[in-house]
TrEMBL record:
<feature type="domain" description="HTH lysR-type">
    <location>
        <begin position="47"/>
        <end position="106"/>
    </location>
</feature>
<dbReference type="InterPro" id="IPR000847">
    <property type="entry name" value="LysR_HTH_N"/>
</dbReference>
<dbReference type="GO" id="GO:0003700">
    <property type="term" value="F:DNA-binding transcription factor activity"/>
</dbReference>
<dbReference type="Pfam" id="PF00126">
    <property type="entry name" value="HTH_1"/>
</dbReference>
<feature type="region of interest" description="Disordered">
    <location>
        <begin position="87"/>
        <end position="106"/>
    </location>
</feature>
<protein>
    <submittedName>
        <fullName>ModE family transcriptional regulator</fullName>
    </submittedName>
</protein>
<dbReference type="InterPro" id="IPR036388">
    <property type="entry name" value="WH-like_DNA-bd_sf"/>
</dbReference>
<dbReference type="InterPro" id="IPR036390">
    <property type="entry name" value="WH_DNA-bd_sf"/>
</dbReference>
<dbReference type="InterPro" id="IPR051815">
    <property type="entry name" value="Molybdate_resp_trans_reg"/>
</dbReference>
């Protein structure tokens, strides 16, 4: 069964002012790709933030309503595509385990949100005709 679409207000990363007379509104999403594969997106940036906040991949995934295996795969993909790992993972077990952002992970997250702000500024400056 296909996954239900998120409501537009949760799906559009940037949206411009609504033009009442025409009923039109410019919306757009931004993500970064490497070799045709998603490297960084809104969801991945939030996952990095949640890892920093919660200190474990499992807790970060739970906080987003995401399965642990999906979160693990996203982190593995980002770590492989990045010049250096974004997330440092320690195996669990009796001693706990955990996850934390590396300096490269902090930088990638900050850079993505900077691009999002620039994109929002661009969307705000457009006129829909």
């Amino acid at each position: 069964m296909p996954k239900p679409k998120a409501p537009p207000e949760r799906n559009a990363m940037a949206k411009g002012p609504e033009h009442a007379a025409e009923g039109l509104q410019l919306k757009g999403r931004i993500w970064l790709e490497k070799d045709g594969h998603t490297y960084m997106s809104w969801g991945r940036a939030v996952l990095l933030e949640r890892i920093a906040l919660h200190g474990t991949l499992a807790a970060a995934a739970r906080s987003m309503g995401m399965s642990y295996s999906h979160a693990w795969n996203l982190v593995e993909q980002m770590n492989r595509m990045a010049p250096e790992p974004l997330v440092d993972k320690q195996a669990g077990g009796k001693t706990g385990g955990g996850a934390s952002l590396t300096p490269a992970g902090e930088k990638a997250r900050e850079e993505f949100w900077r691009l999002v702000k620039q994109f929002q500024t661009w969307v705000d400056s457009r006129k829909v005709q």
